[in-house]
Design goal:
The complex is a heterodimer of chains A (111) and B (115). Chain A is mainly beta. Helices cover 0% and strands 48% of the residues of chain A. Chain B has 115 residues and is mainly beta. The chains are: A mainly beta (111), B mainly beta (115). At the A-B interface, strand 4 of A face strand 4, strand 5, strand 9 and strand 10 of B.
Chain lengths: 111, 115
């Protein structure tokens, strides 16, 4: 299984766009990239997933480098509610049910 | 929105005590999971199940048993609780979608303290 490396923390102001990077240099061809976030006192919540190129949904966008070794989660116009720990997870498609969470990136949003 | 309900929300027990954490999902999901979360470790998978009567071992199973009695209900059992099991426990459920199609839905967590 590929390991992931994320910055431990980030800080932004409300209204800014935030880009959270995730390095997965040993990602295998069978592996997908998932992003979850966890706000205090709640369980993690799914944000977005992708395999290659660019994925977008109503919450965020995900850019995956051509070699798939780097992904970037982009959050447009962050608010105080976006303050959370963001987890990047890589796992094989046939093990998508077994997600291994690291320590994630703690995003602090200032008013 | 998928619903996963955990009980109790908080539990205090003593070393050597017997504890059962309960989880119920009403989403007809096949997979259910138990994770623990500790500062500096993120979430770690204890046990999981892909259906009633099934149990799979996760990454940190020592000291824990689990039982999936129905598709909806998944229990985590600590038969001889130790202080090292003081943690925040999360239950989750998911479908068995195809490649890359498996979203986990988490409960609100149970905070367990073993004195």
């Amino acid at each position: 299984l590929a390991k992931t490396t994320q910055p431990p923390s980030m800080e932004a102001y409300e209204g800014q766009e935030v880009n959270v990077s995730c390095s997965h240099t040993n990602i295998a061809t069978s592996e997908y990239i998932y992003w979850y976030r966890q706000v205090p006192h709640q369980g993690p919540q799914f944000i977005i997933q992708g395999y290659k190129d660019y994925v977008v949904n109503e919450v965020a966008s995900l850019f995956i480098s051509a070699d798939r070794k780097l992904s970037t989660l982009s959050l447009p116009w962050v608010s105080l509610r976006d303050a959370a720990v963001y987890y990047c997870i890589v796992t094989a498609s046939n093990m998508g049910y077994k997600l291994t969470f690291g320590t994630g990136t703690s995003l602090l949003v200032d008013p | 929105e998928a619903a996963v309900t955990q009980s109790p929300r908080n539990k205090v027990t003593v070393t050597g005590g017997n504890v059962t954490l309960s989880c119920r999902q009403t989403n007809s999901h096949n997979y259910m999971y138990w994770y623990r979360q500790d500062t500096g470790h993120g979430l770690r998978l204890i046990h999981y199940s892909y259906g009633a009567g099934n149990l799979q071992i996760g990454d940190v199973p020592d000291g824990y048993k689990a039982t999936r009695t129905t598709q909806e209900d998944f229990f985590l059992l600590l038969e001889l609780a130790s202080p090292s099991q003081t943690s925040l426990y999360f239950c989750a459920s998911s479908t068995t979608g195809g490649a890359g199609q498996n979203t986990l839905y988490f409960g609100a967590g149970t905070r367990l303290s073993v004195l």
